[in-house]
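Work Package 3 (structural annotation) set out to generate three-dimensional models for the target panel prioritized at the project kickoff. During this period the team completed the workflow that converts sequence records into discrete structure tokens, so that structures can be stored uniformly alongside our sequence database. As a representative example, we reproduce one entry of 55 residues exactly as it appears in the project archive.
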Amino acid sequence: MKKIVISLIIILFCWKIYMVYNYGNNPYWGKYESPESNTTLLLKRDNKCVLIGKE
């Protein structure tokens, strides 16, 4: 029983690492901030973006 639980935890841990480091087709996803114009650009993995303007 312990072996099953430990192996399940290891599999879930490896899956989580894969999800974090799997960029798919867009390696540029993330959050970019411009200090000069006080704007933030959020790039998503599905090639969509959100532009946030701060004042």
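The helical segments are 2-21.
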